[in-house]
Amino acid sequence: MTPFDYARAGDVADALRMGAIEGTAFLGGGTNLVDLMRETVARPARLIDVSGLSDRIEETPDGGLRIGAGVRNTALAEHAAVRSRYPVLARAILAGASAQIRNMATVGGNLLQRTRCTYFYDTDGSRCNKRVVGSGCDARGGFNRIHAVLGASDACVATHPSDMCVALAALDAVVQVEGPAGARAIAFDAFHRLPGDRPDLDTILAPGELIVAVELPANPLAAHSTYRKVRDRASYAFALISVAAALSIEEGRIADVRIAFGGVAHKPWRAVKAEAALKGQVPDDALFRAAAAAEFADAQPLRDNGFKPLLAQRTLAAVLGELTTGAAA
Amino acid sequence: MSIIDSAKQTAQGLVMGALQKLVPLAPDSWIPGGVPDPLIARKHGLIGTPVSRLDGPLKVSGGAAFSAEYRFENMAYAALAYATIARGRVTAIDSAAAEAAPGVVLVMTHRNAPRMKTPAMFGTSGSAVGPDTVPILQDDKVHWNGQPIACVLAETQEQADHAASLLRFTYAELPAVTALAAAKAKGVEQGLFMGQPLRNEIGDAEAALAAAPHKVDRRYTTPRHNHNPIEPHAATLAWIDGVLVIHDASQMVAQQAQTMAEVFGLKADKVRLTSPYVGGGFGSKGLWEHQVIAAAAAKLAGRPVRIALSREGVYRVVGGRTLTEQRVAIGAAADGRFTALIHTGLSVMTPHNAMPEPFILGTRSAYAVPNIALNVDVARMQTLANTFMRAPGEAVGTFALESAIDELAGELNIDPVELRIRNEPDKDPTSGLPFSSRHIVTAWRQGAERFGWRDRPETATRREGEWRIGMGCATGTYPYYRMPGAKARLTLTRDGDAVRASVEVAAAEMGMGTGTTTAIVAAERLGLPLDRVEVGYGDSAIPGAIMAGGSQQTAAIGAAVIAAHNALTAKLLKLAGNDSPLAGLSAKEVGSDSGGLASLDDPAQRESYASILKRAGRDSIEVTEAGSPPLEFMHWSMHSHSALFCEVGVNDVTGEVRVRRFLGSFDCGRILNPRTAASQFRGGIVMGLGMALMEETQFDERSGRIMNPSLAEYHVPVHLDVPEIDVIWTDIPDPHTPMGAHGIGEIGITGVAAAVANAVHNATGRRIRDLPITLDKLL
Prior knowledge:
The complex is a heterodimer of chains A (329) and B (779). Chain A has 329 residues and is α+β, with helices and mostly antiparallel strands. Chain A has helices at residues 12-19, 33-38, 73-78, 80-85, 87-94, 99-104, 107-111, 118-121, 164-170, 188-191, 272-278, 285-295, 308-328; strands at 5-8, 24-27, 46-49, 57-59, 65-68, 174-179, 182-187, 210-216, 225-230, 241-250, 253-262, 269-270. Chain A has 13 helices and twelve strands. Chain B has a seven-stranded mixed beta sheet, with helices on both faces. Chain B is globular. Chain B is built from 18 helices and 33 strands. Classes of the chains: A alpha+beta (329), B alpha+beta (779).
């Protein structure tokens, strides 16, 4: 670990002032950033601890929820309104990490998790464009079982590791940000980037910008939602494929649907093609598979992850089948 | 039964009971026609009673000091830098930034390291335990990607780690063999294990296979595995008045001290190595480069040093299990009797070590078959030296063999349990020796009954929702060993009208309960309560050399304690003299009981240890004796066995495998401490589940670099992956071993992967022959 200074922000203005200095990183629960510092992947000169700035979950005037960036993952997953109105979010959080990590991890920090690509972590022995732009990518021709099949670039085939973010992508969440240039609201699907030739940039956050909250819009659909994660062991493993989905049925047809995939791309993957293929249709297994096939038509599998499109298709079909059964009941 | 008969039996029982309380001396060797250890006949003593680990309270309260918790005055902390090429030379080292970093004491590389001998490689002599033939920081050569090439000492661990990250190396790379195909293309050689060829040929197996009406002929592969004991490897050491004092985490205490002495050109008594607590070993807690580097750095700096490897460091410095490619072919008659058994294949090691994965060892004694061909070839790759990992050979060999038997059972439409029993040998099929104790059929019958094997579904027929359910079974096996060199020091010390006993053995306790079991056995032999016996271990100052390896430590200790007990008894009788009620009795005519010695013929003729010592004006009496040479396996084929049963669910949507329940039915001689034994068995099975379903070292064939040196990315089972594991045992003593016991440390892992794979096949109809069984292979 590289030596660093540490300070605690008293409020957002305080954080923004201290965060404006180059080499500063904001610290949430530290469950990912501190690991990256230990591995010398991240070398901030100073940390501004923002974990105490907001741990509130509040109702918004339009019937949604505003979740402070400092809310711990466990608190969010256990919140009664989240469990009843956004079950997909509670389930996604509980599918991630371990109880101890969820007790520490914050909502803001969860959005800024970095990839688990092992070449990204190997600072001494491997090339990685996400770590050092232009150095090359050893994952493309190496171990890439957990890597992307959608939206990757020549420079980077990494995936985003968060479970919670997959649910937020399906829920049309909005990321509330404050920064040197003022406050702005970012649609969740626009918050994370595809790698292109700048895989070092995971999000569109500008330097010094701080996530202050995540807002969940009101959506009756969300109450009928779920999350399913497929992984290599029963707990404490990152998703090979995950699906967040919400669905409503009217008069025997799919009235509305939201789908996002985890484990397939550099960002939580909102499945707009699959959604379009489903809307207005009579739900059945063949339709679900066709919808998944549409989403993965352009998939570009690597050496070790050729199973992902099929696994995603099967998992989506199972999830939608379950939601359909529930919706009809 | 008449009342008279019943009364007679009761009376006989009382007499036998009185006699059984006395423990006569045990034989000190096990030969045909010899007598078994009298402890075998003792049914109601400490042996067989569940005893919690005696050091448990100390461990859970944090009072047990592990190697990285020792402290010396003025101690510096070490961090290593590792090579990032597989083969070549270090041509330049930029250490300026590291040397200028805060708290740095020194940077040691091959340029300034003290001159040292290369540790003699394991097996080259009785005490040699070096990992390989690579000189440690003595030249600029790089032999594997990850080899330590520099060491930083600093005032704190954080400062050392930071400075190590600032070191920059320039290399001249040489061509390296880091791909399996390239290694095979360079040619293979005969595999040797402990100097003996891994090869057996009996009859003409290929011809018998060709002629067999039923057969399977399959290829199985297993990947590299890395060691992940919960305690990463560490040592805290100091040079004190010419003595190198090492607090290490070791499963070969005396041997490591001896090898370290040779490395630094010291007399053996100038290295003192202690290792009272070890957080898991599994074959990995031996001598690797880190202890040598730390001792050299301590010498160079003139300061004590602590070196604690990071988890990544363990992957770079401590070898694991190497990969295998195995062929198993079995020919059988229509009744299921085997006519041919071929188990051959390839293992990989390095140019600088001599440790193939000996996957045919278990096959040698497994089944009655007239035509046998076994062989292990070896290819060499530029990697960290691979090493022992729980049941080297059997762990992966049983995966191939026991999967193939399941496949054959399917071909023959014979129940796989019955097929195994039908091929049970009456003598060792390769050595021709009689078995010392083999009750595997009993284990199969008891296990099948308890598990409900009769309810096994037809292949791919049982479903519960999305889950396909199946049951599988397999045999596990591991040999009984007893290594030479063990000694025991027994001391009786007077404590008022009673005595305290101390038993000291140069053994290693890695958490499995060796200290507790040794106390149980010694208390039983001496006729003392458990709380009057103290066990010393994990210290090179104790005489003898015992290794916690090969599942043989308890037998080695047992034989040494027998020898010491015999000597002690003789010495006590001499001391007792003519004024003792025991006067005139020889050692063979007395037994130990209730804190003293008594005549075997007349238990009332007795004297307590305390009385003997008191009358002789002695506070204590001490003997040190070596166990007899281990000749028993010249006369018998000696093995532990298990019958394993597994039920899995395989998700029909995702291919995920979940083990739902597991039963291990063990035949391992007499079980000395059921509590710690059950943990050993269960722990082995858990490790086997990891091997079956998830463990895999990601070795990048382009660079020769391990890419998942982390418990986040190298998967071992978490709690949710481990179902209820039931363990039972036959508890039938082996009359030809100390205490009637067999080793139990490694058998647990053997056969498990096959039991899982066979259950997966029963559930799905899919046969996975390549470990681990990950979901993509089942989609």
